[in-house]
C-alpha cells in the first residue's frame, strides 16, 4: 500500500517515523464541465486515488519534501517566496503562500509525498497535492480545518501562484468528498449535497493515454470567452442566463463566444437534471445526460480531442454502458462511463481493445469508487501504524 511505502521511505530519509500521514483524493466529474468558473453547478466525486504526505514538524522556518514519484527533494523558506522551475514543488509552495495571504501562521516541516492520481489525466492531481499540502500545514501548525475555506485557499494558490484560472470544483470536492457518493456543488454559494449513484452501476475511468498542460492551453481563453458572454448578457456569470434569455438575445454574440455560452447554460441544466436522475435511481436518464454533455463539450465548447471522441464512442458501443463523456478540462486525458456493474469486466476489455485498434495507444481503463475528502489519515504521535 502507498501509506506503508511512504512511511518506510520517510524513515529512510529522516531516520525515524513521521508524526502525521495526510491524504487528499483526486476527483472525477460526472457532469457539469467548465461550469464551475461560471458560478454554476458541478457533480464530481472524490476518487479512491490520492496524494499522500508523511511528515513531522521541525524547528526551522522551512519546508523540505522528498517526492517518491519524481525522486527529488524540494525545499523552500516560509519567509521568502520566489518562484522556481520545480513544477511539482511550486504547488506546495503556492499553498504555503496562499495560507500566509489568508493570515495563517505556518510552522516548518519535513516530509515525503507520493500519489497514484495519474498526472495530466484530468483527475485533478494538482488539487489533490494542494489539499494534501493544506492538510500537512494544518496538522503541524494546529490550523482549524474548514474544508470549504481550505478549498478556496488552494484555489487561490492555483489561480495566483501557478497561474491557472481554475474554478473551485477540483479543490472543493477533494476537501469535502463523501464515501460512496457523488456531490452536487453550487459553485456560487459553495453549498453541496451528496447523492448516491444509481443502484448496480459503476463509474469507469477511460484514460486515453494522451496528455496536455493546463497553463499553456486554451483553458484561460475559454474563461475569457465566458466572461465576455456574461458581460454581454449583463449578468455576473453565465449561471444567471436562462435558456430562454439565451435564445432571445444570443444572436448579437460572435459565433464562437455564442457556442461557448450555449454549452455553459445547457450544461448547468443537465447537471441539475442529473441530480433528479440520481434521486430516481435512473441510470438511463443519467447516461443520456452524460452523452449530451460530451457532444456539447465537443461541438460548442471545443475542448474534446480525437482520442477522447474515439474512446467515448467505443464505450457507448458496449453492452451495459448507460452513457459516456470526456471529463476534466479536455484536449486529452480521461473520459468516464456509467456502466452496469455486472458488465464491468467485458466492458473494460472491449473498450481497451477497440480503442487500441483505432488509435494505436493502449488506454488505461479501471473502475473507481467514491472516497472521503482530505484530512489526517494517521496521527503517529499516538499510534504505532
Overview of this structure, please?
This protein is of the alpha+beta class and 385 residues long. The protein folds into 2 domains: 2-192 and 373-379, 2-Layer Sandwich (Ribosomal Protein S5, domain 2); 198-368, Alpha-Beta Plaits (2-Layer Sandwich). 42% of the residues lie in helices and 22% in strands. It is built from 11 helices and 13 strands. The strands form 3 sheets. Strands 5-4-6-3-1-13 form a 6-stranded mixed beta sheet, sandwiched between helices. A 4-stranded antiparallel beta sheet has the order 10-11-9-12. Helix 2 (87-101) packs across helix 4, helix 3 (125-141) crosses helix 5 (169-176) and helix 10 (306-317) packs antiparallel against helix 11 (344-359). The longest helix is centred in the last third of the chain and has 26 residues, at 255-280. It is globular, with a radius of gyration of 21 Å. The two termini are 13 Å apart. The mean pLDDT is 93.
Residue ranges: pLDDT <50 for 5 or more in a row?
none
Adjacency order of strands in the biggest sheet? 5-4-6-3-1-13
Q: Say how many strands there are.
A: 13
- Architecture of the largest domain in CATH? 2-Layer Sandwich
Radius of gyration: 21 Å
What proportion strand? 15-25%
- The number of helical elements comes to 11
Q: Structural class, from helix and strand content?
A: alpha+beta
Order of helices and strands: HEEEEEHEHHHEEEHHHHHEEHEE
Could you tell me how far the N terminus lies from the C terminus, measured between alpha carbons in angstroms? 13 Å
- Average pLDDT value? 93
The CATH top-level class label of the largest domain: Alpha Beta
CATH topology of the largest domain: Ribosomal Protein S5, domain 2
Please estimate the helix content. Answer: 40-55%
Dominant shape = globular
Number of domains: 2
Largest sheet report: 6 strands, mixed
Amino acid at each position: 500500500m502507498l501509506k506503508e511505502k511512504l512511511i518506510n521511505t520517510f524513515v529512510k530519509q529522516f531516520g525515524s517515523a513521521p508524526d502525521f500521514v495526510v491524504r487528499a483524493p483526486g476527483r472525477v466529474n460526472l457532469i457539469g464541465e467548465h461550469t464551475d468558473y461560471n458560478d454554476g453547478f458541478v457533480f464530481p466525486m472524490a476518487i479512491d486515488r490520492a496524494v499522500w504526505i508523511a511528515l513531522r514538524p521541525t524547528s526551522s522556518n522551512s519546508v523540505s519534501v522528498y517526492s517518491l514519484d519524481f525522486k527529488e527533494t524540494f525545499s523552500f523558506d516560509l519567509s521568502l517566496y520566489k518562484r522556481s522551475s520545480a513544477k511539482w514543488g511550486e504547488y506546495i509552495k503556492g499553498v504555503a503562500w496562499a495560507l500566509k495571504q489568508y493570515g495563517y501562521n505556518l510552522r516548518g516541516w519535513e516530509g515525503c509525498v507520493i500519489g497514484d492520481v495519474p498526472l495530466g489525466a484530468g483527475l485533478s492531481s494538482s488539487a489533490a497535492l494542494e489539499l494534501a499540502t493544506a492538510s500537512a500545514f494544518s496538522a503541524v501548525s494546529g490550523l482549524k480545518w474548514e474544508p470549504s475555506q481550505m478549498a478556496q485557499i488552494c484555489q487561490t494558490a492555483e489561480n495566483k501562484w501557478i497561474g491557472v484560472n481554475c474554478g473551485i470544483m477540483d479543490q472543493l470536492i477533494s476537501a469535502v468528498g463523501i464515501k460512496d457518493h457523488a456531490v452536487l456543488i453550487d459553485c456560487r454559494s459553495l453549498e453541496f449535497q451528496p447523492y448516491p449513484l444509481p443502484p448496480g452501476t459503476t463509474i469507469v475511468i477511460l484514460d486515453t493515454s494522451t496528455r496536455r498542460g493546463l497553463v499553456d492551453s486554451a483553458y484561460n481563453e475559454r474563461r475569457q470567452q465566458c466572461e465576455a458572454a456574461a458581460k454581454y448578457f449583463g449578468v455576473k456569470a453565465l449561471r444567471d442566463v436562462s435558456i430562454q434569455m439565451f435564445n432571445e438575445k444570443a444572436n448579437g454574440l460572435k459565433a464562437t463566444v455564442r457556442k461557448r455560452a450555449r454549452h455553459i447554460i445547457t450544461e448547468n441544466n443537465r447537471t441539475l437534471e442529473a441530480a433528479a436522475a440520481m434521486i430516481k435511481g435512473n441510470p438511463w436518464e443519467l447516461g443520456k445526460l452524460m452523452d449530451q454533455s460530451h457532444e456539447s463539450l465537443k461541438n460548442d465548447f471545443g475542448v474534446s480531442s480525437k482520442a477522447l471522441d474515439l474512446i467515448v464512442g467505443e464505450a457507448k458501443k458496449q453492452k451495459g454502458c448507460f452513457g459516456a463523456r470526456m471529463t476534466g478540462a479536455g484536449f486529452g486525458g480521461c473520459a468516464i462511463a456509467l456502466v452496469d456493474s455486472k458488465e464491468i469486466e467485458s466492458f473494460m476489455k472491449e473498450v481497451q481493445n477497440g480503442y487500441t485498434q483505432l488509435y494505436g495507444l493502449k488506454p488505461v481503463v479501471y473502475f473507481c469508487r467514491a472516497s472521503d475528502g482530505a484530512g489526517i489519515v494517521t496521527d503517529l504521535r499516538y499510534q504505532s501504524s
